[in-house]
Amino acid sequence: MKLISKYFKHFIFFYSYLGNRIIFLVVLSLVGGFLDGFGLALFIPLIQVAGKAQIDKAEAEESLGSLNFLLDFITWSGFELTAVVILVFLLLIFVVKGLFKYLESHYKVLVQMYFVRKIRYQMVDSLGDMEYRNFLGLDAGRVQNTLSGEIYKIVSAYVAYFNTLQSFVLLLVYVVLALLANFQFALVVSVGGYLSNLIFKIIFKYTESASLNNSKLSHKYQSSLIQAVHNFKYLKATNYFQKYKIKLKDYVDQIELEQKKIGIFNAILMAAREPLVIAIVVAAILVEIKLLNGNIAAIFLSLMFFYRALNFIMLVQTHWQAFTANLGGLHVGLELLNDLESGKEQDDSTVLVERIKSIYLNKVGFYYSPEKNVLKNIDLEIANNRSYALVGKSGSGKTTLTNLLVGLIHPTSGEFTLNGKPLRSYNLSSYRSKIGYITQEAVIFNDTVFNNITFWAEKTEANQKKFIKAIELANLTELVEGLPEKENTILGDSGALISGGQKQRISIARELFKDAELLIFDEATSALDSETEKMIQENIDSLKGSCNIVLIAHRLSTVKNADEILLMKDGEVECRGTFAELLSDSKTFKSMVELQEF
After folding, report:
1. What is the spatial distance between Cα 380 and Cα 550, in angstroms, rounded to a whole number?
2. Domains and CATH numbers, the chain
3. What pTM was estimated for this model as a whole?
């Protein structure tokens, strides 16, 4: 089993994606190879019949060895062994071979497209299906590098592997034909071919090692690059970018060193290929003539087949070298895919959420590590299109509670019920489709206003009306009308072309277009100036009564009009009530108001 795993693990991997498509490709290669060999074999009697009216069949059969059945087939078909007849049969064989070659090449492209699409779909699906807690442990650079860069190496590895497989199939075909033509000579050449392969195995080993190192370094480089872009303002303002550039350039140098190694190994392989072929052929002829007392005429056809075979040995080695050069990408891609799938969220229920009527948390607790509870004994009921606010110092559990409400994490104790039933009894995706989420850093895509708000909905008349209504409710009509291309204006990367307040209003409009039944504002106004905050607050107040609203905020003005405020401390609800009630009953809340710690 270890031997099978060692030499066929890559075949098993590709077979798991492509199934019998691989077998069909191999069969097409086999047929094409044998037809090519039969056509080449007919050149021997064609040479012998030159200048004669008819070939001496006995002489031809001796030259063809076990391939004399080709001549038997011609005579069985009722034809004489003349030059014209042999030429016609030779032409027919190569025409049929050409048809099979076309089928093979065309089908190979279709299979490649199928494989690429399937593995990309699988990666995207696995990423989207991953549980949030498991996603937090992933390296963003690793994910981005694999999904954008290493995926091309996986495709290149696939192409190189199947080129290797097809070349190996044709190699076997010509070896079989050579054995049929002259068994003794074929055996001598086979030994030479095997010995040459031992040399190249060393090169393959070093190439694979360099490829794996290259992929790992690319992950680190991508991760560092993402952080550089994300923290550019800070790095630029403090001149730390000068030091950070050294770190980035060091990764670049290391990556280039591994690429250089791969290039050198490729150069050695290409330079040594042809001399080795000739050396093996010359050595085999000398052994056959000098040591085994053979004659050159008897081995001519076998020699011709083996020259073809040795070329395919070199092609196998060249393609395998290309495969090992991209093997690092295949390995890291499979590792990421395995991590994504092992961290998959359990969402097997088919019961859909029609409406969010009520959400109830009963004695809910949560921890990332059993040693420390992040939430403790949380009781909360959300219903009747009311507004709720979560306040408290940093680290009090507000964001964790929000993550729990949207189903990103699940209670480690207590009950979370939706419409009177456990949340996990529903399909989580259908629940989240009812939720709108506006964060401190507004989520804006580098696309048009329309696509940002509608999330790439089709521009139907109904969607256009919903879009207009959403921008009216979010006080965006004047902004959109004033843009150069109105709703078709591109907003730039992360909304670089608009202000912070405008970004937040677009985020609100997106959730209104979605018809969200639970709107969550996670410190959505904390980074805005007072005037813009007031405008956003008016937006929020105008939505009261139309859906359930949960606010997380530090500023007094944002939560003042909430129907119920929960003051959190150390993962627990210390007290709750309206703004006036908390101001009267809670010294902590009163102190926070006085200090403006919102």
Report:
1. 11
2. 2-226+255-342 (1.20.1560.10)
3. 0.69
